[in-house]
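Cross-posting from the modeling subforum.

Setting up a comparison between two proteins and wanted a second pair of eyes on the formatting. Protein 1 (sequence, then structure tokens):
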Amino acid sequence: MLYTELLRLWDESVQAVDVKDWKRALATLEQISEPTSRTFFNTASAHLALGQLDLAMRALHFCISKDERLAVGFFQRAAVMMQINRLEEALSDCIWAQKHMRGNVVIDYKQLGLRFKLYSWQVSYNAAAVYCRMGQWEQARDVLLLASQAGRGTNIDAALDSIAKKEVLAPLLVPEGVVFRPRKQDVEQLQQRDFLGKPKVDDESTKNYQLSQQLPSTLFTFTASFHLYQAAVCQEKL
């Protein structure tokens, strides 16, 4: 599939998202014959907006298979897993999201086209939300206490109060309508034609698209545990 064609469909789907026309967004995304991790993430976002959790989870599986280091993909899938009560898998995704934070307190996805910052404390918060659903209140508290070292005291304090009352925490997700967008300059260049009548999209964008098509050989399949989660967090703090 030509990058210019992918870019056109990607941009059209984002325009549909902006007016909350989720079905049109999905129909447009389905026309992309070689989806990327980012377009799969957007597909999942549209399914979530429609309340289609199983389809959202499936799209996130493909998203992660395209980019196995995409922390926000694991973060989002963990939240979906929680909502369909697949708790061990949700906790596993929290572990991998934390691992792929690579010791950063925050990852800003703006350069990749997603207007969202993923904080380490948010990943820990979702891990605590999983433990709440498992009835493991002490582990939930301990995860939050560990996360409090990274700041966001108000958020963590409120969550600790809820846990003390044995109130289950709601999972955090990337907000509705926040999706990966193509670069503005690339979209603008679609309207420009060189003397051969071909779209002018810079080589860097095409190269990045080609690299994104490389599939990893396997998907992560791990059984999560509290000790694994602590190890992942502590290791990144060293």
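Protein 2 (same layout):
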Amino acid sequence: MNLRQLRYFVAIAEIRSFRKAAERLHIAQPALTRHMHDLEREIGAPLFTRFSRGVVLTNLGTQVFIDVARLLGEFDQFEEKFIREKSYRHQQIYVAFHDAVAQNPALLESIAIFKTSFPNARLDLLELGEQDQLDALLEGRIDICWAYDICGEFRQLSSLDSIVIQRDDLVMITSLNHPLARASVVTAAQLADEPFIVHTSKRAPRVGFNFYVERCREVGIRLDKAQEADSIDMLISLVANGVGVSLVAENIRNDLRSRVAIVKIPELELSFDLTILWSKDNASDLLCRFLDIIRSTTS
């Protein structure tokens, strides 16, 4: 008994004709008949009741057909998965993200599932600022990026597709012993004399950064003389140690609340969209699989 015989058996059972099954299988009818006689002899009972115009399954044949069809379906799925994974062996995908996104649960879960699902594929992770991500994406140096889009600037580019993963309100963070640390909300006026720390503008898209600075200025928060930090870790450490206060997306870090106080500024109606971006021209099947995983983890 072998897979070929079982496939022949299923074809005959479905068509109910040796002649038509032989035509579909591109095999001579006498050879097909011999294969079925061999199969029936091995099983020890007839699988078909034969008539001049065709065949029907015996009771045993019906049960065998149900079991064999299921087994062949499972084998075909396994074979397809094996071939697909083998084809990914020498493929890779480049994923870039902002350091503020590095601990995002959706990113981490998507990477873990991808590595489990496609162990032979290579996943290269790059930490880049938003402007560097955008440049790399448009130049084809990366396949996908996870970035905070403050004013929809990225999504306006016609050559890119995007998914908004989450929307985070802009909040103020202070050290745990700051006078405003216990407040649930503050006004912009209360922050007039506060020293601010911002994530370096060198890594941010100019349009988005200017929009952010201008929106803050409109409510009385001046960022033009703010201390710049090269990374989100440095920014949080500076704030935690009382060097100044900062404005950040509320959910950028899982450990944020244990290190700093989070205070809302209701009059500053500003939010960040955590956005997945990729080129519409990128036809990589591996990228499609990664996007499927992202959609499933964020739905």
